[in-house]
Amino acid sequence: MSTEPQTGGRVADGSPVVRLANVNKHYGPLHVLKDINLEVAKGEVVVVLGPSGSGKSTLCRAINRLETIDSGEIYIDGKKLPAEGKELARLRADVGMVFQSFNLFAHKSILDNVTLGPIKVKGLPKDEARKQALVLLERVGVANQKDKLPAQLSGGQQQRVAIARALAMAPKVMLFDEPTSALDPEMINEVLDTMITLAKEGMTMIVVTHEMGFARKAADRVVFMDAGQIVEQAAPETFFTNPRSDRARDFLSKLITH
Amino acid sequence: MDNYLSLFTEYNIAAAFWVNIQLTFWAALISLAIGTVLALMRISPVPSFEAIGAAYVTIFRNTPLTIIILFGVLALFNQLGFTLSPNFNENFFRMAVMGLAIYHAAFVCEAIRSGVNTVPVGQAEAARAIGLGFLPAARLIILPQAFRGAVVPLGNVLIALIKNTTVASVGSVAVEASSVMKTALEFRGDIIIPIFLTFALGFVLIVIPVGLLTTWLSRKMAVAR
């Protein structure tokens, strides 16, 4: 830990919830994460933007070690993310993850999807986990589907269940890896609304997305990535109206023309 | 016709097939247990477990069953005095079961692994993301879906196992169907072809329901995605 990252973040109440220090990753000859330094403060909503292949998904997945990193350090709530084993599983339980393809457990009911983690990882009694799950499912608006299997729900409903499943672990931070990219257009809003509510309630969130509207509405900070690097960080209004880097300007111009 | 029917009074053919069914039952149970452990080893993140599982499959899948069962009887029992039961016949029966189980475990492992391949990688990622370790994730999320996807290949292994129980005859299990058939062929030269057909039909009748059952089960248990 020679160099302390000095990038952004409202570190009002002590250490950041997520801290990445000099993180590097290669896929063979491809350098997909180049010396990433990032801090996310408690309650902060960070939206990661960037063209395809810029490394934003890899960054998101590295934070709970679904992707290994080659060098550098990742800290969750001040604790260094270990390489493997029980300690890693424990830290992962503190990090909620929402995937592009929902990844609900296909053989389990909606209710069981949400109660599985609290029961098996946290050791919560079954009826307590069930009560809590029903509250969460109610909150994301799919409580009436609780006995169905994931395949019987629409994509938007599945993604909201996935958010409830992650919330059931009472995570310190939520990661969203392109949560609306696999959804039909008319279902995107129901998921974004859920996420905006979550952001307003003070959840710490890192969101990889192409939804600029969400970034404007809910983000505290936009992180723009290109070619494995963090090119620019700014408040959403500043970023969208007055991007500093050429690459960000180029990226935004393409969004507007199409 | 009377000639042929006397075959059934001279030899207890149903009892002979019952021995094969018993061999199948125990060998299937034990090979399922060993094969599941092997499959877990082969998908585990620990390289040495992976290597041991792969080595087991390579060795036992590529060794003839006859050699494995003969090794049990001639090497383990005759040479080294290793027994699985003080009862002479029961010992050979159990040795045959173990030989069948050890051999078919390699195929069960590969069938389960093919089932694991039907489970999208996102299922394992989601399991890990909520904080489940390898074994809980395998037990709660991966294997339940993998077994459903492996019904047909596992059924094929079971069918092979049923027919392979006849190899127990080289392991001195003298009461199973193919041993009884050999004895019958020796003493009833007048009806050689009907004897062959009778025993062949016996196996067909046992195997057909297994094939039907696995097809039905694989449809019924398929995981909707």
Automatic annotation (TrEMBL), chain A:
Give the matching PROSITE patterns. Answer: ABC_TRANSPORTER_1, ABC_TRANSPORTER_2
Q: Which GO terms describe its molecular function?
A: ATP binding; ATP hydrolysis activity; ATPase-coupled polar amino acid-transporter activity
Where in the cell?
Cell membrane
Annotated CDD domains: ABC_HisP_GlnQ (cd03262)
Keywords assigned: Amino-acid transport, ATP-binding, Cell membrane, Membrane, Nucleotide-binding, Transport
Superkingdom of this entry's organism? Bacteria
One GO cellular component, as annotated: plasma membrane
The top EC class is translocase
List the catalytic activities from the record: a polar amino acid(out) + ATP + H2O = a polar amino acid(in) + ADP + phosphate + H(+)
The membrane topology noted for this protein in its Swiss-Prot or TrEMBL record is: Peripheral membrane protein
The principal location of this protein is: membrane
Protein EC: 7.4.2.1
- Domain ABC transporter: where? 18-252
Q: Which Pfam families match?
A: ABC_tran (PF00005)
* Entry similarity comment: Belongs to the ABC transporter superfamily.
Entry protein name: ABC-type polar-amino-acid transporter
Which species is listed as the source? Answer: Zafaria cholistanensis
UniProtKB/TrEMBL annotation, chain B:
As for family, the record states: Belongs to the binding-protein-dependent transport system permease family. HisMQ subfamily.
| Location, primary (coarse class) | membrane
NCBIfam families per the UniProt record, alphabetical: HEQRo_perm_3TM (TIGR01726)
Instruction: Specify the protein name.
Output: ABC transporter permease
What molecular function does GO assign, one term? transmembrane transporter activity
Pfam hit, one: BPD_transp_1
Record keyword Glycoprotein present = no
Q: What is the recorded membrane topology of this protein?
A: Multi-pass membrane protein
Supply one GO BP term: amino acid transport
Q: Which residues does the UniProt record annotate as the domain ABC transmembrane type-1?
A: 17-214
Residues forming coiled coils: none
Print the keywords alphabetically.
Answer: Amino-acid transport, Cell membrane, Membrane, Transmembrane, Transmembrane helix, Transport
Name of encoding gene: gluC
